[in-house]
Design brief:
alpha/beta, 237 residues, eight-stranded mixed beta sheet, 29% helix, 12 strands
Length: 237
């Protein structure tokens, strides 16, 4: 048995993907599938702010892709929104300040549907949570997970729409967040009766450190595929 650490990459079937938006852009990404069988659910990952370095390789999203197909039978789609770049390449277009990215979110959902992937869940982190709340309330989406939501671009109207949808919403708020801390987050998300808000003491906006990563990935799996929870901390070689 080998301990799972920050650099661990577990087995998965990985393939590069290209998403095509309704306004004519090509977005680069990757799909990771369980190594030996079909996934039980799908995570569509929306990364932090690209103007501050956010991309499909931002560490929580990368580690979800590296671990959750093997540990929790999840499909993980991650991609660069318009103008964002990573080792996989640069997506077409320019940063759209959260507005034009509506087409990116729609393209990811449509691609997953066309690929026949099951039970679509959106996973947004920071800026990605704004995209989830503003543009991810789609009939094809089962629910959403928000990491470090700033609630800058998305506001009460978007929260009310999620409340009306009845879709599950899991909200992870760092106790030491730079933008929205647990007490204020509880007040803001009270508009969404079905929202489950978890405050994570001593965690920060970027979820740095393996203890924070394990909390985040564990809570994702607890909500999306509880049969695989709790996640192991070791892997059989």
């Amino acid at each position: 048995m080998t301990e799972i650490t920050a650099s661990t990459v577990l087995p998965a079937r990985r393939e590069p993907v290209t998403l095509h938006t309704a306004d004519g852009l090509a977005l680069v990404g990757e799909l990771a599938l369980p190594p030996h069988h079909d996934p039980v659910a799908t995570l569509i990952c929306l990364h932090p702010l690209p103007t501050e370095g956010g991309m499909m390789d931002s560490h929580i999203i990368r580690k979800a892709s590296y671990r959750l197909p093997a540990l929790a039978d999840l499909a993980v789609l991650r991609f660069n929104t318009r103008g964002a770049a990573s080792e996989r390449g640069r997506s077409d277009g320019e940063f759209g300040a959260g507005e034009a990215e509506r087409y990116d979110v729609a393209a990811a959902i449509a691609w997953c549907l066309a690929a026949g992937l099951p039970r679509l869940w959106l996973l947004g982190w920071s800026f990605g949570t704004e995209l989830v709340l503003e543009w991810g309330n789609d009939p094809a989406v089962e629910g959403a997970i928000l990491l470090s939501p700033p609630l800058h671009r998305a506001g009460d109207a978007e929260l009310d729409a999620w409340a009306a949808s009845g879709k599950p919403l899991l909200v992870l708020v760092p106790g030491l967040d730079d933008y929205l801390r647990p007490d204020e987050a509880r007040q803001r998300f009270a508009r969404v009766p079905q929202a489950e808000l978890i405050a994570v003491d001593r965690a920060k906006h970027l979820w740095v450190g393996e203890p924070s990563v394990r909390i985040v990935l564990g809570e994702i799996v607890r909500r999306v595929n509880p049969a695989a929870w709790p996640l192991p901390t070791e892997w059989k070689d």
